[in-house]
Amino acid sequence: MDVTKVIDAKGLACPMPIVRTKKAMNDLESGQILEVHATDKGAKSDLSAWAKSGGHELLKDTEENDVLKFWIKKG
Amino acid sequence: MAVNMMTAHEVTKKVINKEELFILDVRNPDAFSDWKIEGENFDYLNIPYFELLDGVDEVLDKIPSNKEVLVVCAKEGSSVMVAEMLSDEGLTVSVLQGGMKAWSEHLEPVKVGDLKGGGEVYQFVRIGKGCLSYMVLSDGEAAIIDATRMIDVFIDFAKSKEAKITNVFDTHLHADHISGGRKIAEQTGATYWMPSQDAQEVTFTYTALEGGQEVTIGNTAIDIHALYTPGHTIGSTSFVVDDKFLLTGDILFIDSIGRPDLAGRAEDWGGDLRESLYTRYRELSSELIVLPAHFMIMDELNEDGSVGEKLGVLFKQNHGLNIADETAFRKLVTENLPPQPNAYHEIRETNMGMIDPEEEKQREMEIGPNRCAVR
Question: Which letter does DSSP use for residue B294 in this model?
């Protein structure tokens, strides 16, 4: 996957993972991919709901050793 | 304008007193539709916090100016952010301290009655999740039934009553919440009882609870009579306390009955459930006050916030006790059941001691309503 930018939101509690993600997304061009790392469990459902409502596409998400990773394509 | 913090205890008082409250729930719509703070005179607006990052303009005209406003999220952080934005616009709003996490864990002790020998019975209402635990106090001794995992609340309460916790019971192996029974017993040296038929896979030692046993609390002999009433689980046991209270566990609720399917045995246990509800309970005094292990809707709360009703009244009013046709009854308890509680397999495994998740994980497993009943 051709990732344009990586955001490290590990250790941050809600709402910071989404605040950071949104900010980073503003700097991206449509079609570019943002990779987000987070540890807040709530980030999973919130990021997918946020991506959907913003017209972005959540390409993939993984969970390894309590770290959640997301790949979001800007819409 | 200020952002106030409102505690789960304060919100509980508003539920019990049927006060008005406007709840701005900023969790995502799935979480909100699954589980929210229920109150008879509460109004709601659900807009996820991530749609308000650029400003709260779109919600300003949807928030009434004549009602108290409470902003709610999962753990507090996002509601503080939204509340501060609303405050900047000149509104006075409160935030639920600790969010739905705190709401799920809050226990409200309510006295349900006195005992013949001078003791008392308290019900611990877990208002956000609908779980009910009990403490029987007599002559400096305490017994706890169906404790939740917030064990300090029970231990501190017993301390405040200058009572020593001597016996801890679980009416059955719970599937909707993590029991605190074993941990309380470990910390206090009390005897931990659970029905042996529900305990076949447990990894710890316990004292086997069998129908017909009697346990005495305090010198004035408050007796707890165990009554074997299978159906929700194969080991489910009810208790008659002081010939006055009937603790029904997850077999009989105020406005519903237990579901037999949470261990994957609905077909087998449907018949047991009927036997317990339609034969064994019928043999008891209709004057007994039924104290269940759950409530499902706020309508089941009495004026004082307690949950309980005379057995005779339930025989008349509870739909689940009034299905004459056995086939129709079996159909009710095996078909079209509500969704199962969140993470119920893992919760059962935790209660059997097979897994020991850390606290944060336990919280997450218990998110949502209890869903132990059928109506």
Answer: B
pLDDT of B220: 58
Cis status, amide bond into A15, omega within 30 of 0:
yes
- B29 to A49: CB separation less than 8 angstroms, yes or no: yes
ipTM of the complex: 0.90
Could you tell me if B81 lies within 8 Å of chain A, comparing CB atoms?
Answer: yes
Q: Are residues B93 and B111 in the same domain?
A: no
E-assigned strands of B298-350? Answer: 309-310
B73 a catalytic residue? yes
At B210, which CATH number?
Answer: 3.60.15.10
* Cross-chain Cβ contact B75/A42 below 8 Å: yes
Regarding whether B283 and B221 lie in a shared domain, the answer is: yes
* Interface membership of A46 toward B (CB under 8 Å): yes
User: Number of C-alpha atoms within 13 angstroms, CB side, residue B121?
Assistant: 28
Per-residue tokens: B223 = 């007796």
Provide the shortest C-alpha distance from residue A75 to chain B (in Å).
16
Q: Per-residue confidence at B223, pLDDT binned at 50, 70, 90? A: confident
Chain A residues with beta carbon closer than 8 angstroms to that of B29: 49
Asked if B77 lies within 8 A of A13 by C-beta distance, the reply is yes
Regarding whether B34 and B84 lie in a shared domain, the answer is: yes
Question: Is residue B224's pLDDT more than 90?
Answer: no
